[in-house]
Amino acid sequence: MPTVPKPISFTKDEGFFELSKNTVFSGVAKGMGGLFSYLGLASGVENRLTAVIDDGKQDEEYMLQVSPGEIKIIGGERGIYYGVMTLLQLAAKNLKDGIANIPVCKIDDRPKYAYRGFMLDVSRHFFPPSTIKKILDVLSVLKINYFHLHISDNQGYRLESKEFPKLNEIGSVRAGTRGDGKEVKGYYTAAEIEEMVGYALERRIEIIPELDIPGHTIALLASYPYLGCEGKEMKVAETFGISDNILCAGKESTYEFLYKLVDEIASYFPSKYFHLGGDEAPKTKWKNCPHCKKALIDNNLKSFSELQSHFINKIIERLEQKGKTVIVWNEAIYGGLLKDGAICQYWSDGKKPRRVFAAADGGRKTIISKFSPYYLDYPYGMTPLKKTYNFDPEMDGFTSEGLKNIMGVEAPLWTEYVDTEEKLFYQMLPRLMAVAESGWGSAKDYTDFKVRLESLRPLFAMMGIKMPSLGECDPGPIKGAIATVKFFINAFDRSMINSSINAIKAQSERRR
Ligand SMILES: [Zn+2]
């Protein structure tokens, strides 16, 4: 039966339930039918969907039973919501003239992993709350329960800050992107954040904020230059790539700033999780900074990598006092001293995946976001749908002990080259459907998946989303190679080359 993610068990029988505008969502299901408005249902016979909580079931588990006169859902609280989402998919597929004839059937269903996520980078390009709500609707349909919002990076800071207003005046505005001279700006106001968080919770989704530190912080440094080792004035970054300019880990003033900032961000987002980034932080500035060098000695640390662990640990402790569990990108565990409770988000093969496997072995919870199959900003030529679909999160390298610590999966969408809502959804769907299936633990069958995916195309169309054709999703080796080359030529364009030349020039001048 065509739903995504595919249910654990499904049996079909003769007959139909006629779902229409007159179908009453009662019991626990009351108020869960909001997304059915996309279907434009017409008037029909009066009938009922009832839902009952079963304490014997897990929170995300449900049983859906469709008979000609009634639909029943029994499950945990979230499970019942998922049952309603399954029903939405069935209704969209069987919709004709505003009436959905849902086949009589029985579904037993539950997810394999507790964590199924999607990440959006709103720093490189800012997307308004209306786009965020549309994304949350899609996540809800696919039973994805975490929305990770990357709110800060070199190219912009995107939350209202009452504590540090320059993060909005300066940090939320950049003059252009790679020389185009077009201003990019924006941030979510406190009221908008509250609305988005509430909208997400209604859809059984938690929004996890990410303040990426100590690297990827030029928007912070441009707003408050004292946060850097040299205290130098700088502009919000207009080009992409990794920067040497990172927060100073030696000055007490950096920690005082971060404590207040994470307190403010945590006050916006009730999620039990908080992401602190920790990726791609070159230690060039730290090695030449008297404050950082002193911090190394004072804290008895052997390397600047250990100093990064020490730095992140201090912020983790602050967040733990607020009952938060911190997630970090995998580089942050390489310092070796990171606190045990922090979760590792594994994205990069790098040279050291064995450290990720070893950490999972030692009990560290891990989220799988491996970039080659799961980075949704990559063109389909580079990461075809089939590759995303066939990727097994229980990858080689994890031991049976380590596998127990895999919490789930998450697909990130970085937005350096994604500047419109249309492009965003083009990159996101249908690949996120494949990730949702892996997170749910559906049995793998690519041919069957494509059929179910196609049958959901009308639902997404009703939501105003256009997905690429299956031909575009799996372009084959030649078109794929061309798309890959184009992507890299675009990523390393003149402005990137120019900034590299300038950096080399600056370095040789310093040597003279
Ligand atoms: Zn420093």
Mean pLDDT: 94
State the end-to-end distance. Answer: 71 Å
Give the name of the CATH superfamily of the largest domain: Glycosidases
Estimate the global geometry from the Cα principal axes: globular
Second-tier CATH architecture of the largest domain: Alpha-Beta Barrel
CATH class bucket of the largest domain: Alpha Beta
Helix content: 25-40%
Q: DSSP strand (E) fraction?
A: 15-25%
Bound molecules: zinc ion
What is shown here, in short?
With 512 residues, this protein is α/β, with parallel strands linked by helices.
Outline the secondary-structure elements:
Elements: E1 9-19, E2 23-27, E3 47-53, E4 62-66, E5 70-75, H1 77-93, E6 95-96, E7 99-109, E8 115-121, H2 129-141, E9 146-150, E10 152-153, E11 156-157, H3 166-169, E12 173-174, E13 184-185, H4 190-202, E14 206-213, H5 218-223, H6 252-268, E15 273-277, H7 284-287, H8 290-298, H9 304-321, E16 325-329, E17 343-346, H10 353-361, E18 366-368, H11 371-374, H12 385-390, H13 400-403, E19 406-413, H14 421-428, H15 431-440, H16 446-462, H17 470-473, H18 476-491, H19 494-511
Parallel strand pairs: 2-3, 3-5, 8-9, 8-19, 9-14, 14-15, 15-16, 16-17, 17-18, 18-19
Antiparallel strand pairs: 1-7, 4-5, 4-7, 6-7, 10-11, 12-13
The chain binds zinc ion.
Explain this structure to me?
This protein has 512 residues and is an alpha/beta fold. The chain has 2 domains: 9-109, Chitobiase, domain 2 (2-Layer Sandwich); 115-444 and 477-493, Glycosidases (TIM Barrel, Alpha-Beta Barrel), CATH 3.20.20.80. It is 38% helix and 20% strand. It is built from 19 helices and 19 strands. The protein has helices at residues 77-93, 129-141, 166-169, 190-202, 218-223, 252-268, 284-287, 290-298, 304-321, 353-361, 371-374, 385-390, 400-403, 421-428, 431-440, 446-462, 470-473, 476-491, 494-511, and strands spanning 9-19, 23-27, 47-53, 62-66, 70-75, 95-96, 99-109, 115-121, 146-150, 152-153, 156-157, 173-174, 184-185, 206-213, 273-277, 325-329, 343-346, 366-368, 406-413. It has an 8-stranded parallel barrel, surrounded by 6 helices. Strands 1, 2, 3, 4, 5, 6 and 7 form a 7-stranded mixed beta sheet that branches. A two-stranded antiparallel sheet has the order 10-11. β8 (115-121), α2 (129-141) and β9 form a beta-alpha-beta unit. The protein is globular, with a radius of gyration of 24 Å. The chain starts with 8 loop residues before the first strand and ends with a helix. The model is unreliable at 506-512 (pLDDT under 50).
